[in-house]
Amino acid sequence: MHLKNIVIVSDYCYINGGASKVALTSAMEFRKMGYKVILFSAVGPVMKELQSCGVTVLNLGQYDILNNPNRLEAFKSGIWNKRAENEFKILLNKLNNENTIVHIHTWTKALSSSVIRTAINNNFKVVLTLHDYFTICPNGGFYNYNTEEICAKKPMSAQCILCNCDSRKYMHKIWRVLRQLKQSGKGLTPSGIKNYIYISEKSKNILKPYLPGDANFYYVKNPIDIEKETQVEVQDNNSFIYIGRLSKEKGCLLFAKAAKELSLNAVFVGDGELRAEIEGIYPKARITGWTDKETIIDELKKARALVFPSLLYETLGLTVLEAQAKGVPCIISDTSAAAEFVKNNETGLWFNTDDIEDLKEKIKIIMNNDIAENYGKNAYESYWKNDFSIENHVNQLEKVYEDILKRG
Question: Which residue from 69, 74, 265, 377 has the fewest beta carbons nearer than 10 Å?
Fold first, then answer.
């Protein structure tokens, strides 16, 4: 039977990050294509554009775990959201499981895996986009926030459970372990999910050994909302730019120290708990705080290179693609998934993760005008040879949905 209904599951019904942006923009595009689209979410407010284009929004009006003033309720519903389970069951009872796809984007901040179990138990075809590593890793990042390094422990092994890797405290890690136990058991995640969408080969290869052996994997490009303009003449620019949250795992302190030692014109677009520390390390750095899309584009147009020094694996690194769309070469940590989208010594440079001396050497290379111009030209051409449009994204998704329904 052909696809008719699309149920999109997202903790939030407004855009507050990359995953929710992909979920909500695809919902609106599918509605424009004539499909019945239902967004099931826990946390509002509802983005007005969703309703104006005809997406049916079922929002529970709940808090996410972090902002719930009732901490006992947050503790319980974060592990298993009973109301979400009940409301989702009511919704699915009104739909035909033979022509409906349930697409899971996010569930760990509010909805819990209760919604995933509900869909599976009611024989709906489920597909999950691997925006992060929460399907198998308790803290979602394969990262030890205390030792500040990538974690190689087997998820949920004794070594993993005993390791204090949480960004807060060990008791919070224990709560995450309890949630993971509930998710992998009663929540049927990942054991009951047979279809996965991945956004980079790196993230797929990390996750695949822990996912069902008979699972189907589909590569779908994340959509990038950016206009094609004239390539930036990076050789005429002298600023090195960082875009993102100012937190340790993102490697921004490493860049701040390198910028100080090289006396760079450094720009940090973003904010976070390390803002004051960065200002202390390098007072000459300019920190814009969180800003709108237009300002980010303006900063990219003034940049010589984007520095992406993340200590995490990441799953993609959207800012890298956005920089390339403008013809700005990228200097990136070699263990991040973003390395997949930067051709070393061609569209940018890789440096050894968390190695300040290697980062400085790569920055010095980009200081050469001819190299910067060449990398920028290559980055621009490489990006626009690919189609990262929302239209291509939903066309790819439509084929994935049809294939899943056809498999039965």
Answer: 69
Homologous superfamily (CATH) for 5-136+189-223+389-407: Glycogen Phosphorylase B; (3.40.50.2000)
Domains 5-136+189-223+389-407 and 234-385 share a fold: yes
Q: Is 32 helix (H, G, I), strand (E, B) or coil?
A: helix
Q: What is the pLDDT of residue 95?
A: 98
Alpha helices of 242-368 — where are they, by DSSP H?
252-262, 275-281, 293-301, 318-325, 356-366
Do residues 20 and 12 touch, judged by C-beta distance below 8 A? Answer: yes
pLDDT tens, position by position, 318-357: 999 999 999 999 999 999 999 999 999 999 999 999 999 9
Taking a C-beta distance cutoff of 8 angstroms, is the pair 200, 340 a contact?
A: yes
CB 135 within 8 A of CB 190: yes
Domain 234-385 is found in CATH 3.40.50.2000: yes
Please state, in angstroms and rounded to a whole number, the distance separating the CA atoms of residues 196 and 191.
Answer: 12
User: For the chain, which residues make up each domain, given as ranges?
Assistant: 5-136+189-223+389-407, 234-385
Helices (H), ranges, 212-313: 252-262, 275-281, 293-301
Nearest Cα to Cα of residue 12 among 32, 36, 39: 39
